[in-house]
Amino acid sequence: MASRSFQFLRECVHKFGVGRGTGVFIYALFADETSPALAALRHTITALFSCCFKCACPFLWQPHFRSNADRAYNRQGVSNVGTDASVDTVTTAAADTAAGTWELVSMTYNGMTVGKEDLEEMGTAMTLDLLEDGVLMLANADTEMVFERPGSVAAVTAPDEEEGEQTASSTAASVEDSWTVVPLASAQALVPYSCTEFSMNIPEGWSVKSSAMYTGMFHAIHVFDPENPVNQIFFMLKMEPLFSDENSRAMMALSSDLFGKYPILTNVSTQGVFEIFPQFADAMNATADYADIQTPYIADFSVTESFESTQGMSSVAISPSILRADFTQNGTTGEGMFTADVVPFAMGTGMGYYSVYNLTVLSAEKGIFQDWQPTLNKVLSSLNYTPEFQSFAMSQSNQAASTSQSLSQSASEMSDSIMSSWENRNRSQDIMSQKQSDATLGYERIVDTETGNIYKIDNGFTDWYDGSRYKSITDDQYTDSVEAVIHWK
User: Fold this and answer.
1) DSSP string covering 306-370
2) Which three-class secondary structure string do you get for the chain?
3) What are the sequence ranges of the domains in the chain?
4) Does residue 146 contact residue 158 with C-beta atoms inside 8 Å?
5) Are 382 and 200 spatial neighbours (Cβ–Cβ below 8 Å)?
6) Alpha carbons 254 and 245: distance in angstroms, whole number
7) N or C terminus of the chain: which is more exposed, having fewer CB within 10 Å?
8) C-alpha–C-alpha distance, residues 342 and 340, integer Å
9) What's the number of CA atoms in the CB half-sphere (13 Å) around residue 85?
10) What does the pLDDT read at residue 420?
């Protein structure tokens, strides 16, 4: 369809050209070369148009230019169009351009747009021969004509009026064609795992080690990435004994040499348990019932944040808390969330000791824990002990039965508490740390506005991408998990 704003296109018989000493030439051919409208429209067309080349032009015109080098331009009116007379201002095309013939693909006048198909129906043709590559525009304040070089990589054909604006999704699709997307392991779907004692969902490819059913209330589970074992979950229903002093340990060792391997807990608290964790791991690995679960050697434990604990045995525990901490494990620096409830037993008898309930470790390599934390939490919350195991474990002793009404509920409560603590953490340090990591590795972060997913992408993407689907993230979003790494270079 053609609006009245373009009636002159049907009637115009005029050929007009803009001569350039540098070889720039504009030529327009309209349908009816014999129309008497020539004289009336000569000055109209002269006043309407001027050549514009890619530049620091008004921002509303910028989307029409797709070129990779700035060009000189002039937007002054062209006089004596189609004659040998001089031009007001001479524009010199840059030396690095390539010759090409351009075709008219859309026109806009006072906000009304006619696309390529309508122009063809009107019998209107216009070409622009210019030393340039990409998309060019012939325009003034009221009217603009967009040209593209047929076959040009940079060319973007303007859509017809009835097709509307080019959608963000189609623009994104063309951008994504050149992407290499590397999904993060932390974003993968979980797969089911089950055995006689329990079932849970775990990351695909991870290993599961656990003690036998007869360990009952002292059952332990270790789920970890065999390629990077610091990415892990360790959960133990109950662990004992931890001694208050050397005399107590010596007395207990008289009944079994194994007791002599268990550590003394001088800092009676959740933090104290993890500060002596290497000694605990040595004792566990020296015990036949736990030798195969590969208890992690969590060393150099350093608390970065502490949160109140109100779940599990916290009501009778000494200094219970949920901790965020850094540590090392076999030479790898890790970060994680930790909790354990320390409960005294028979203190003052000379045979007293501490029991530790719901000992929980969720950890990953330093720098990627925030990506792993939601997944690790899902794994822990999916832990479900079988009825047979629960019946056996809770029948071992009256104490065990009175302190654990539901073993599966214990894991779920720990998961909820850890997630709540994680969500209430101090995020400022995370933001700074993630920004530093991106700068070191050469990434920036973008969010998909359609899905909300966040990605790391090769630095520089937002310098040239002008679509609307992908946006740079805000500072607050640096604390959200990342779905994948994208390479576009």
Assistant:
1) EEE--STTTTTSSS-EEEEEEEEETTEEEEEEEEEEEEEESTTSSS-EEEEEEEEEEEEETTTHH
2) CCCHHHHHHHHCCCCEEEECCCCCEEEEECCCCCCCCHHHHHHHHHHHCCEECCCCCCCCCHHHCCCCCCCCCCCCCCCCCCCCCCCCCCCCCCCCCCEEEEEEEEEEECCEEEEHHHHHHCCCEEEEEEECCCEEEEECCCEEEEEECCCCCCCCCCCCHHHCCCCHHHHHHHHHCCCEEEECHHHCCEEEEECCCEEEEEECCCEEEECCHHHHHHCEEEEECCCCCCCEEEEEEEEEEEECCHHHHHHHHCCCHHHHHCCECCCCCHHHHHHCHHHHHHHHHCCHHHCCCCCCCCEEEEEEEEEECCCCCCCCCCCCEEEEEEEEECCEEEEEEEEEEEEEECCCCCCCEEEEEEEEEEEEECCCHHHHHHHHHHHHHCCEECHHHHHHHHCCCHHHHHHCCCHHHHHHHHHHHHHHHHHCCCCHHHHHHHHHHHHHHCEEEEEECCCCCEEEEECCHHHHCCCCCEEECCHHHHHCCCCEEEECC
3) 4-166, 167-188+426-489, 197-425
4) yes
5) yes
6) 15
7) C
8) 6
9) 9
10) 85
Whole-prediction pTM: 0.60
- Tokens standing for residue 14: 């005029």
Tokens 């004289």 identify what position? 39
323-350 pLDDT tens trace: 999 999 999 999 999 999 999 987 666 6
Pairing of strands 198-203, 207-210: unpaired
Cis before 296 (ω within 30): no
Q: Which amino acid is at 138?
A: L
Contact predicate 190/487, CB 8 Å: no
Under DSSP, the state recorded for 80 is S
> 3-state SS string over 98-129?
CEEEEEEEEEEECCEEEEHHHHHHCCCEEEEE
Half-sphere exposure of 176 (CA within 13 A, CB side): 13
* pLDDT tens-digit map of 204-245: 999 999 999 999 989 999 999 999 999 999 999 999 899 988
User: Phi/psi class of residue 350: alpha, beta or left (left: φ > 0; alpha: ψ in -120 to 50)?
Assistant: left
Buried b (16+ CB within 10 A) or exposed e, 453-469: ebbbbbeebeeebebeb
